[in-house]
């Protein structure tokens, strides 16, 4: 019974301290491998290297996670089974962030090989990648695709795990400049032209409306002037008629008195 308990505790400890099938989603915020050890503060022997420094938003960039010795030629490239080896890594987790990356959400999507798989972090799809087995790795290739409407600088942060005791967190790659794809730029310019056309049409309509209002107002003024003129003429005629009648009446009264 005691032996069975020891075996069960060992299995539980292995599940908590090691993730042979990749990082869990609980590591999305910190990229910490949940090992019962502190991360290394020494120089990391592994590198995250994008193959391009500039891409368009409708394209992708290929990335290599590898032992630094593979570039310098100081490593034979063979896998080692030593627990404390730094010639190869067993696990990793990688995400892309916009620069500056403080409090940022992982961007884009990853395409991975058969020895890796993607993770959904921060409510996004396939925006992180991790290992699928604890085999020793000298190099891993991935492909990252930015959001179609994204423009800016991106860095890749990677946590490398050589063993339970040896791991390096948040290793930063060289930046990659993502430029808006020409088609997207053309669409934006087309939208701007359409907006300008609408503004011009609105201006023309407003101009015609002002002219129409001015024309109607002028007609109202003319009509009012005509009415006033008729009123003045009629009033004048009435006064003249009264004066003529009064003069005639006075004349007749004078003749009668004679």
From TrEMBL:
Entry-linked InterPro entries: Ferric-chelate_Red/DefProt (IPR051237), Reeler_dom (IPR002861), Reeler_sf (IPR042307)
Residue ranges occupied by any Reelin domain in the UniProt entry: 13-193
Assigned keywords, A-Z: Membrane, Signal, Transmembrane, Transmembrane helix
Segments crossing the lipid bilayer: 222-245
PROSITE patterns in the record: REELIN
GO cellular component: membrane
Signal peptide start-end: 1-18
Matches recorded under PANTHER family: CYTOCHROME B561/FERRIC REDUCTASE TRANSMEMBRANE, REELIN DOMAIN-CONTAINING PROTEIN
Protein name according to UniProt: Reelin domain-containing protein
Organism: Daphnia pulex (Water flea)
């Amino acid at each position: 019974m005691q032996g069975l308990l020891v075996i069960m505790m060992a299995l539980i400890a292995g599940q908590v301290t090691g993730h042979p099938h990749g990082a869990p989603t609980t590591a999305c915020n910190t990229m910490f491998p949940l090992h019962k050890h502190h991360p290394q503060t020494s120089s990391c022997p592994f590198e995250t290297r994008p193959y391009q420094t500039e891409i368009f938003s409708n394209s992708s960039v290929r990335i290599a996670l590898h032992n630094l010795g593979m570039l310098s030629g100081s490593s034979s490239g063979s896998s080692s089974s030593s627990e404390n080896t730094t010639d190869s890594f067993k696990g990793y987790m990688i995400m892309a962030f916009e620069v500056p990356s403080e409090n940022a959400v992982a961007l884009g999507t990853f395409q991975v090989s058969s020895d890796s798989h993607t993770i959904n972090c921060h409510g996004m799809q396939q925006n992180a990648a991790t290992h699928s087995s604890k085999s020793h790795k000298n190099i891993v290739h991935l492909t990252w695709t930015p959001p179609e409407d994204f423009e800016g600088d991106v860095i890749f942060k990677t946590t490398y795990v050589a063993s339970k005791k040896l791991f390096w967190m948040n290793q930063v790659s060289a930046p990659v400049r993502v430029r808006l794809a020409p088609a997207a730029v053309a669409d934006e310019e087309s939208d701007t032209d359409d907006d300008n056309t609408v503004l011009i049409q609105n201006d023309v309509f407003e101009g015609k409306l002002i002219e129409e209002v001015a024309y109607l107002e002028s007609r109202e003024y003319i009509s009012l002037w005509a009415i006033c003129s008729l009123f003045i003429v009629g009033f004048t005629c009435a006064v003249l008629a009264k004066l003529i009648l009064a003069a005639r009446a006075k004349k007749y009264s004078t003749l009668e008195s004679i």
